[in-house]
Each structure stands twice: as structure tokens, then as C-alpha cells.
Amino acid sequence: MLVPTLYGMRFTTEAVHDNSSHIVSCSSNRNTVQHLVTAFAEGDPLSASLYPLIQDVNRGGTPSKLAQLSKVAQHYRDHASSLKREDAQLQEDIMEMMVRLAQVRADIVEAENRLDLACNSMSPIRLLPSELLEVIFLDVVGGIDREEWAPAKSSPQTAISHVCGGWRRISLQLPHLWNRFLFDIGIPLHNSRHPRQNLLYLEQWVERSNPLPFSICLRTNTHFPHPSDGPYYDTILQSIADSASSRIELLRVHSDNPILLESTAWSRFVPAKCLELVGTRNIAGRITLPCHSFNQLPSLTSVHYDVSPASPFLFPVSFSSLTEIEVGESNEGVDAYALRYLLRCCPKLKRGRFFMATSGGRGGFILNGFVSANAVRDVNPNDSYSLEQLECLALNGHSLLTPNRASRIANSEVAEPRAPVERNDRE
């Protein structure tokens, strides 16, 4: 038989085989206590006379028997009340013990946390001098590949600055840790928080890297662009320029989005000295006319193209001020005619690296489609020229670009003093 729960305790009764007694079980907090209840309880002298007295009353007992039974009932009534008061006191004591137990457990957690803090302060890594930690931090960030750009939230710089207060203090005092930033522009979405969060990160990194030159990589996810996206990209680029353009030295654009690449807001990045156009190989057919977005950056001295087709004429810049130019690998490459034209456009060139095409010239296509009329009048591919500052000219290509062909190209296009020619075959 199940008895109702009292004060969080559960009572059950179980009859014994002789039916003259039963077992009462009490469970609380997974602790069970069993008590055998018999007809004659030890320590209770009235229990021996209770059952005979009840039998006499049931047979029609005298008034004296009834008075005697009434006294026995009052005795057990008082005894039950006393036990209930004791039970209530015990419950109150239990609650106080539970509160104390919770407090003790909280104190244990707090003590262990302080113990861990003390142990960490005594650990070998915390005993390293600040100068050595600075060298380690700079080595970690400096060892990252030039082509790898990590988002601000998951960058090694952020991880280092979040280890402890001491590391954060040291890292924030090292401008070289914070002068490279990846800005994921994302796709245009209404009320998107992503660009605003990146702008906040950008402002922090620009401030921490002061007064060093700043490098920034702008990246977009591939999606189906729409002309209506133009104002969105213009606003983002203008905000980036307002935050960092005064110190930007390297501008890297990793996108095949023609709406972004044709934005007029690129002219805001005037101090940029190095331009890298990367990841734009899938843009063939999406831009049919030369994009002059980057032609208004007068400070450019270095350009890295990884575009097709007709690279680098798809995104012309002020070639006359370039000292370094690199044209990455593509299916078509740069033919000899385009190379001659480009070298004549870059009189200050010191270092050049080109992925050469194995087919014949495409001069008509280049001049008619991707070079302005003014540029054609200013530079005549048939005129002689001299690259007096040239230090290295590397011609890369497929295996069909033989050493003899590379030498003929270099010897016919570069006047004295002639630069060394590197050859890098691609099978």
C-alpha cells in the first residue's frame, strides 16, 4: 500500500505473513529506512492493553472501559503531535543543511578557480619575459603564408590576445600583429549585421596597428550579382576607406563579382601602393569592356593580376608608375605582343613575372578591346625602348615555352642593360 508523500518523503507498508504486524518503509533523498510495526511495541506499555481493551468495548464495554480507552486515545494523540513537531524541526534542520551544502559547493568551485589562477601564474609560460613573448607572437604571425588571410574572430592575433590579461597587454602593444585584415563583404542582405561587425573589427585593427602601413583583403562570396547591388558595395567600400584608407599600402581584392569590381568607390583608396586582384578567373564573359575602377590610384607601384581573359588589360592601372608587375597563371596567358606592349608602358619596371601564352599574338584584340585610344597614341609597340631599372624578368609557362623561345622574347624586347631571365616550366 502506498501512503501519500509527506515533506518530500515516500511511505509504503508491507504486511508480514502472520498479519499481526507490518513494515513501514520511508524513502528520502535515496535513503530508505524500514520499521517493523508489531502488535506489542517495546517501550510502549499501553500497546499491550490496547487490543484487549478495544475488544471489550466492541462487545459492549462498561463506561469505565470507555473512559480508559479514551485516555489511551488521548495518549497516542499527544504522542503523534509530539512526533510531528519533531518531524517539522528535522525538516527545518534539513533545509538549513541543504542551504549550507549549496554554499559549501559554491565555495569549492570558487576556491578551485583561484587555485587554477595561482597555478597558471606560476606556470613556465607565464614566467617568460615580455621581450621573449613579443618575439614568439611576432614569429607566429610572421610565419603565416602570405596568401592566407584569416577572419578577425578566428585569427591567430585574436587567439593570442584572449589567452590572459598579460598576453593581451603585450599583444596590443605590437602594431605588427594587427596590420593585416580580412574583410568579408558578404552578399547584400537587408539589415545584415555582418558588415557592421567587420567595420568595428577593422577600426580596432587600424588603431592597434598605428602607425604602420596597413594591408587589407576584401573578399566576397560567389553569388549571382545584380546591378541593384551597386549602392550596397559602394557604401561598404566608402566606409572601409573612411576607416583605413589613409594608411592602406596593400589592397587585395579577392572576388569575381563584376558589380563590386566596377565600383567607383575604389578611387577612395588613393594611398594604396600595391594592388592584388585574385580569384577573378571566373569573370570571363561577365565583363566585356575594360574596367577602369583602379586606374585612379596614382600611388600604385606594384600590381599582381590573377585575372582572365586578356590580363592585365581587363583592369588597367597607371602603368607608367609601376616598378613591379606579376601576371598569374591562366589558360591563355600573355602573348609576346602583349608583353612588348606592357613593357613599353612600364618604363620604371624593376621586377616582372609573366605567365606566357604558347600561341601567336592577339594584338588586334588587345588594342581594340582593352586598351584606350590615348594609351595607343602614347605607346607605340614598334618603338624601341629601354628598361634601365629592370632587375629581374621571369617568364613562366607551359612546357611549350622552351628556353630558346624565352630567350628570344627577352632579347628582342629588353634593351641594355638586359635583365636575367628565369624560366619556370609547367607540365
UniProtKB/TrEMBL annotation:
- Residue ranges the record marks as coiled coil: 94-121
Arranged from A to Z, the UniProt key words for this protein are:
Coiled coil
Q: What is this protein called?
A: F-box domain-containing protein
Q: Which organism does this sequence originate in? A: Coprinellus micaceus (Glistening ink-cap mushroom)
Q: Which domain of life is it from?
A: Eukaryota
Give a yes or no for keyword Coiled coil in this entry: yes
